[in-house]
Each structure stands twice: as C-alpha cells, then as structure tokens.
Amino acid sequence: MLKELISTDSKKIALATIPIILALLMLVAFLFFSGDKYSKDLTIGDGVETFKELSDKFAELADKKGGAYAYEVLRHAPLPPQTDLHLLGHVVGEELYKQEGVGGIRLCTPDFRNACSHSIVIGALAEFGESALPLIRDACKEAPGGSGAYTMCFHGLGHGVFAGYGYELPETIEFCKLTGTKEYHQREYIECFGGAIMELAGGGGHDPQLWEEARKKYITEPLAPCLSGVVPRELKEICLTYLTPDIWKAAGIELGNFEPAKLKEAFGYCDDIATSETDLRRACYEGFGKEFVPLAGARDIRDISAYSNEDFNRAIAWCTEAGNEQGSAWCIASGLDSIFWGGENDPSASFRYCELVTDLGNPAYRTACYSRLAGAIGFFVHAPYERSRLCSQLPHGFQPVCK
Predict the structure, then answer these.
(1) What share of the chain is helix, strand, coil (3-state, %, to 5)?
(2) What angle do CA 177, 382, 184 make, to 5 degrees?
(3) In the chain, where are the structural domains located?
(4) N or C: which end of the chain has fewer CB within 10 A?
(5) Contact (CB, 8 A) for 61 and 44
(6) Backbone angles phi, psi at 361, to 5 degrees
(7) pLDDT in tens, 71-129
(8) At what angle do helices 187-202 and 208-218 cross, to 10 degrees?
C-alpha cells in the first residue's frame, strides 16, 4: 500500500513538473532566439502607431537582412494588439519573392495562415502575368502545410489577381476560373475568388485609389457584391465568407474598435438572406465565426493553441448574439475551423474549444462543434495512428464520422 501511495505521489509530482519544464524550455528557446543575431530587431514594434508604419519597417528589415530572417522576427517579436499578422506576412513575403523568386516557397512555413506562400504566387503573377499559371500551380503544390495548403495557396493568388486586373471583379472571376481543376473539385477557382473578396474588403495596398473606387462600385449595400449579378452562384458562398468586415462596417463595427453591442444588427444582415438559401445563410454566419476567434485573441495568430479559455469563451459568446440557434451554431462551428486550421495548430486547442461550447448546455451548439471537428480530423489528418488517436478523444457519437 505504501509503495502504491509513493508511486502515485511520484506520478503526481512528475505531472505537476511538466508545465514548469515546458515553461523553462520555452524561456531557454526565447533567450537563444533573442541572442546577438536577433536581439535588436525584436523591438521592431516598439512605438509603432499605424499598420503602415509597421509594415514599412518589416519591408525594410526583409530588404536588408532577407525575407527568411524577417519572418523569424515576425514569429517572435512583441507587436501591438490587433495587428493583422496575415497581411504583415504578405509584406515580408513580397520581399522574399524579390530575393528568391518562385523558389522562395521552399523557405516558407505555414505560419501566419500561409501568408508566405501566398506572397510567392502573387509575385509570380505580377512578374509573368497569365503565363505564370503553370508555374504557380507547381509552386502551390510545394506550399508548406497539410492537405489544405495547396488550395489555400490559390486564396493568396486571388489577392494579386484582383489587384492585377485593376480591382475589377469580372476579369478576376474569369482568371480564377482558369485555376480550377476536376481533381480538386474546382476548389482552386473558389479559393482564388475568396482571396479577391478579402482584398476588396480589407486590402488596397497595391493601388489605394483604384481600390477605393472599386469599393464604391461594388459595395453598394451590406451584402453586395455577393448577392448581386456580378458574382456567379458557385462563388456566392465564398464571397459572403470573406465579406464579413464590410457587413460589420454597415452595422458601425470597426475591427480596430470592436463593439459587441452592435453584433445583433450585424447578424441581422445574414438573417435577411432568404431561408431557402441555406448555404448562403450559413456562409454569412460562418464568416462571423471566422473573424471572432482571432479577434478574441487580439489577432495574434502565431499560436492560437495558446489562446486562453477566456479568449475562446469570448468568441463563443459573440456567436450566441446571432439571435437564432442555427446561426449561432454555424458561427461556432466556423470558429472551430479557425482553431484547427487544417491540422496546422495543436489539436488540443480545438478539443478545449468544443468542451467550452458543451459547457453552455445547448445540444445544437455541441453537435455543431464536435461534428465540425470530427470532419476536420477525418479530412486533414492522414497518418492512421494520429487520426485514430484524435478520433478516439471525441465523444462516442462523433467517432464514426471522424474515422
């Protein structure tokens, strides 16, 4: 009995020391990183007041010391809250392309939601035009990350296509259509247009004046251009998914000054979509969930798995402002996608998120979260042992879908 108690206590002590050991290892890693090579540049965000100022500093750093070096600084440097790290990653990637060309994709990582590989293909398009498509396709197949990295690479391309065609949607749609393949069920085409809409909603760096003119032309009401005749039916879902920032603006919500009290009005625009258009209503609500998780963590997407329960609960609570159970469930499920991110992030964070959703006591929310997680594991995790391990952690009723 004494031996068992000693053994049990030893295990408890050993388990208790694991977080301490991990913290020490992280500290050692940080101290190593912040040595002579990087120490001066880790203060790059100090005193910065605007995104433009910060992006200029990173562009200068990448120009002087190389894009790969600047990405390492971007991964570790303390930066102002609510900094758009994905767009900042594009800035560094542009410099990397200048230095390495398409081959620079070998230096990319999946960090910042694949911003590096996005910039590489945008650079190829800018340099070679439409003739670059075969080159871009090959580059996207080399994009770092899991099975979703290839198609998401075309999302990045869409940013450049839209800018390259002078922020004109019809021409952008025609080019994006050329990217689609039967092998991937035309997903390249869809993701390409999604990138273009994201550029319309929050880009403009290539030509601010033309971009502003395009916004006046296409965003004539909260759900335009997605529900207009400009966008074909097969692209309306992805359009609504990335139009969220402009839907929020119609309700008086700004990303830099987020006011949850205005969410009910913003969600109301999604509710205005005809109930017969289930896929479009879902896409609209899911666009909110896509934004909520990063926003709850001050948009620091460098390590979403490190977000606290408080961060996740904040995002979940915002979803419940939808005013209807189905809309909230779609929003919550989309939040899970942002956390799992094609298997690139620590999966334990996704399980933790669904556990917090379960704590709300709403069966519809719980089902939405675990169903989405089961589907994501089944689709993105290919290693048999790892897939089986993760599937077995799901509540019993969701395991068959996962496996």
Answers:
(1) 75, 0, 25
(2) 10
(3) 251-403
(4) N
(5) yes
(6) 80, 15
(7) 889 988 988 888 888 888 888 888 888 999 888 888 887 777 778 888 888 888 888 88
(8) 100
